[in-house]
Design a protein that fits this description.
Rossmann fold, alpha/beta, about 25% strand, ATP binding, AAA+_ATPase, globular, binds adenosine-5'-triphosphate, 11 helices, nucleotide-binding, about 30% helix, ABC transporter domain-containing protein, eight-stranded mixed β-sheet
Length: about 325
């Protein structure tokens, strides 16, 4: 499989007012993040709230400008591409959000919502566009007679199907899906995830699937990257990450996933619960050390880089293995 997306050493900082003095402080939302996604592949991006997952997704679709690093799509550097240069690239990468309401105009008919990207990119005659919209409605499990409805007439699951249809209109190669099912009822989540799997096969799509629900991520991902305080702490094949997690933080996450085999739970280290440190003032060395049960002096002093570990994954831990 050839590489579709490459993210190299991406960093993003935000200036935020601090305390009563109001003097700005810096949040290192994303710090030196690198990964690649092959055509047709799903990379799951997981981690606690605030670890930087959405910021990574937004930099890939150019909703946010990185401070450092590069985004390459099909080998082309799109990090600072002009609006004009981005036009053909924009068709290749689409994003869907947790709350489709934010991206769907409430006054627009749903058929027009799906047609709009085709008009913007000057694709097809009016008749061809109508046919394409009807086809997309069918593929995402919406009925043609719903094309005249505004989004408020749809259920949450149907609205997300509509957002998916709109994202598919331009035949993208990659969809960045930011918590696409976490706002939906549990009973509906599986339906939308299964739809995403089906259309992935049909369209040869790749996903960056951002989520905090580890069960769903396991179901859909070929590989998984785990983020903690703006950095990737472990990345590898889904089976390696879930069955043989190497980073103590990944083990903590995996311990929270219900497991069919209770005997295996006891072989896992116990990590004390605790607050995620503030990204305004991250700990020295390995930023996980204050919560880590196996931290030693080196962890407080030196920040570990990602290195290959026995499971075949890469982990940023002095004591992995
Ligand atoms: N526009 C912004 N201005 C200031 N700080 C921001 C901004 N966007 C994000 N942040 C901060 O950057 C960090 C990473 O946020 P981000 O939304 O990427 O995390 P996340 O892992 O996607 O979390 P969640 O799952 O809650 O969305 C957080 O500390 C957040 O408060």
């Amino acid at each position: 499989m050839s590489t579709l997306l490459e993210v190299k050493n991406l960093s993003k900082r935000f200036a935020v007012p601090r305390g009563i003095s109001g003097r700005p402080a810096t949040v290192h939302a994303v710090d030196d993040v690198s990964f690649a996604i092959a055509q047709g592949e799903t990379l799951g991006l997981v981690g606690e709230s605030g670890c930087g997952k959405s910021t990574v997704g937004k930099m890939i679709v150019r909703l946010l400008e990185p401070d450092e690093g590069k985004v390459l799509l099909d080998g082309t550097d799109i990090t600072h591409a002009s609006h004009r240069a981005m036009r053909p690239m924009r068709r290749k990468v689409q994003m869907i959000f947790q709350d489709p309401n934010g991206s769907l105009d409430p006054r627009q008919r749903s058929g027009d919502i799906v047609e709009e990207p085709l008009i913007v990119h000057g694709l097809g005659s009016a008749a061809e566009r109508k046919a394409k919209v009807a086809d997309l409605f069918g593929r995402v499990g919406l009925r043609p007679d719903q094309m005249g409805n505004v989004p408020s007439k749809f259920s949450g699951g149907q609205r997300q199907r509509l957002a998916i249809a709109r994202a598919l209109a331009l035949n993208p190669a990659l969809i960045v899906a930011d918590e696409p099912v976490s706002a939906l009822d549990v009973s509906i989540q599986a339906q939308v995830v299964n739809l995403m799997s089906d259309i992935q096969k049909e369209f040869g799509l790749a996903y960056l699937f951002v989520a905090h629900d580890l069960g769903i991520v396991r179901h859909i991902s070929d590989r998984v990257a785990v983020m903690y305080l703006g950095r990737i702490v472990e990345a590898g094949d889904t089976a390696a990450i879930y069955d043989r997690p190497s980073h103590p933080y990944t083990r903590t996450l995996m311990d929270a996933v219900p497991r069919p085999d209770p005997a295996r739970r006891h072989s896992r280290i116990k990590v004390p619960r605790g607050e995620v440190p503030s990204p305004l003032d991250p700990p020295s060395g390995c930023t996980f050390h204050p919560r880590c049960p196996i931290a030693t002096d080196i962890c407080r002093a030196e920040r570990p880089g990602l290195r290959r570990v026995a499971s075949g994954a890469e982990a940023a831990c002095h004591h992995a293995d």
